[in-house]
Amino acid sequence: MTAEIAIMNKEAIALAADSAITVTGETGHKIFTSANKLFVLSKYHPVGIMIYGSAIFMGVPWETIIKIYRNKLGKKKFATLQEYAGNFIKFLDNGNPLFPDSVQEEYLHGSIYGYFNLIKENITKEVHLKMDKEGNITKEAIERIISEIIKSHYEVCEKASNIPSIPESFNKKIIIKYGKRIDKAIEEIFEKLPLTKRHLFQLRKIATSLFSKFPDKVQKGDISGIVVAGFGENDTFPSLESFFIEIIVNNKLKYKKHISSKIEFKNRASMIPFAQSEMVATFMEGTDPYLQNHMEGYLSEIFDKYPEIISENVAEADDNEKKRLRKKLKEVSKKIFEDYQKDIKAYKRENYINPVINVVSMLPKDELAAMAESLVNLTSFKRKVTMESETVGGPIDVAVISKGDGFIWIKRKHYFKAELNAQFLANYYKEF
After folding, report:
1. Are residues 203 and 116 in contact, defined by beta-carbon separation less than 8 angstroms?
2. Residues β-bridged to residue 189
3. Which phi and psi angles does 320 have, rounded to 5°?
4. Number of domains composing the chain
């Protein structure tokens, strides 16, 4: 995991990222604290990029991808930061030779098998639960469980729309090109389960959705986060664009925009954490977000239960009167709870968020960098003094991007000594 942050005001944007990376193997996982997550995107213009989530995209390290793109970009410039971000996405999309068809098919295979195995596990779990509860299970009951679970996954995928960059015809092309792969996966994973033609149809639709949609309830662990930040040629103030990027199949990139933020005359400052952000939220809002969610969940249960308790203890009322009383009390309790949430949000904004944002809007470049580093370090320190895995840690890379000075490293780790590698510095701006 990762802790990263971008802090912007009208003068500059500060970026900070930790160095921890978790590598998972067959026997467990290991954490290294020397990963690079913050990079210069253009050698000649004020644009940077951060990565989080998976450090490798379809078998290629993001560091390699970014540096290949940077060499390809050269001295080319764009009018806005959004165009830099769009150009980087375009570089990945539409048949990048870094990701040949054989690699795309391999990752398609892994995605389909992984999700179909999840569906099979859901079916197996439900069958075992029913057997534990009733002692045995009929063939009809098994068929009903299979139908319900496949249908639930199918409906989740069907409710989601194709991402904007992928046309509806793409799903049919996936079936045409990879239909045999999908059918083989169904045969190998579901084996002797009694699947009907409807089940096969639904499973094929689920498979195509894996490469064209981001269903709300489908979470995958191999997604990468990308943050492009800085200035375009015509930008007076800094901005950033962030994306979730998952896979390329049939030469189409599956991605979606995450956060877009821009400093303007009315929006004078912004603080945006990425990945593990709970400590930044605690600093900004005065309450740990997990604690806040727990309290609101508990209060919600209380407000939901007390109309029942009150109505049942009104001895003089008959069943119809109790029903009317419950309905009225539920409406009142819902309104009270909503007012409570609004009041808490307003209090946080007035007493915690706005005071910090007001100061951030006035910070000079060096103070922006110090603040960004401190907030990432706060997350790292929390992991160190608790029993949680230290998934945030190592040296913190910090950079400041401004219109006049460009991309400036404030802190940067190297795996080599700069004084022993003069050729590296000499070749950095070498013309090709």
Report:
1. yes
2. none
3. -65, -40
4. 1
What percent of the chain shows pLDDT beyond 90? 67
Identify the burial level of 76 via C-beta atoms within 10 angstroms of its C-beta, where 0-12 means exposed, 13-18 middle and 19 or more buried. Answer: exposed
Across the strands, what pairs with 57? 60
319: left (phi over 0), alpha (psi -120 to 50) or beta: alpha
pLDDT on residue 28? 61
Q: Are 75 and 233 in contact (CB under 8 A)?
A: no
Is the residue at 236 inside a domain?
A: no
CB-based contact 2:32 (threshold 8 Å): no
Nearest to 7 by CA among 409, 399, 275, 412: 399
pLDDT of residue 432: 47
Instruction: Provide the pLDDT for residue 308.
Output: 82
What are the φ/ψ torsions at residue 366 (nearest 5 degrees)?
Answer: -65, -35
Residue 176 domain-assigned (yes or no): no
Decide: 145 and 127 in contact? Cβ < 8 Å. Answer: yes
Question: Residues of the chain whose pLDDT is less than 70?
Answer: 1, 23-29, 219-221, 315, 390, 429-432
Model confidence pLDDT, tens digit, residues 186-229? 999 998 888 999 999 999 999 999 999 998 777 666 799 999 99
Position 310 in a domain: yes
* Residue 330 lies inside a defined structural domain of this protein: yes
Q: Kindly provide the b/e burial profile for residues 370-389, where b requires at least 16 CB atoms within 10 angstroms of the residue's own CB.
A: bbbbebbbebbebbeeeeee
Give backbone dihedrals phi and psi of 230, rounded to 5 degrees, phi first: 140, -140
Residue 373 CA: distances (Å) to CA of 73, 86, 350, 407: 29, 28, 25, 16
| Domain boundaries, position 292 | 284-358
Task: Using alpha carbons, list the distances in angstroms from residue 354 to 160, 197, 278, 285, 411.
Answer: 36, 58, 18, 10, 29
Confidence at residue 238, expressed as pLDDT on a 0 to 100 scale: 98
Evaluate if pTM is beyond 0.85: yes
